[in-house]
Amino acid sequence: MSRVLRIMLLIAAVFSAWWILLKIRKCKVKMEDAIFWVCFAAILLIMGICPEFTYWLTGVFQMQSPANLIFLIIIFLLIEKVFTLSIITSQLEDKVTVLSAEVALRSHADEQVSKEEEQQIKSMDAKSTETAVSENDQPHKS
């Protein structure tokens, strides 16, 4: 593994760890996502610090170059993350659909209640007006 690749792995690992720790401190990332990214940074760090381990894995998987193995590992981890995020997005879309239906039903029910209350108020006003008119029409006894 070339010195440049090792340095790039170390820089990527340190930057990833720093970035995720900053986001954790600001509470902008969920803990399970933070664990994934910390593990990702740790894998990059291990591959950068211990090239012997990377060479050993390259031999186990019978690959021609440690760089190919590193790219394969990174691509695999990122595809797994995209797949996980896709599942979460689908679940959230389903929840949004259900919530929008509930909001529509509640809004419709509130409109019905408002209309019924208006009708009751109008009927009460009409009765009070009839009562007042009928009292005014009766002759006064003095």
From TrEMBL:
Start and end residues of each stretch annotated as Disordered: 108-142
Transmembrane stretches, start-end: 6-22, 34-57, 69-88
Residue spans of biased composition, Basic and acidic residues class: 108-128
Alphabetized UniProt keyword annotations: Membrane, Transmembrane, Transmembrane helix
Classification via InterPro entries: DUF2304
Protein name (Swiss-Prot/TrEMBL): DUF2304 domain-containing protein
Organism of this sequence: Porcincola intestinalis
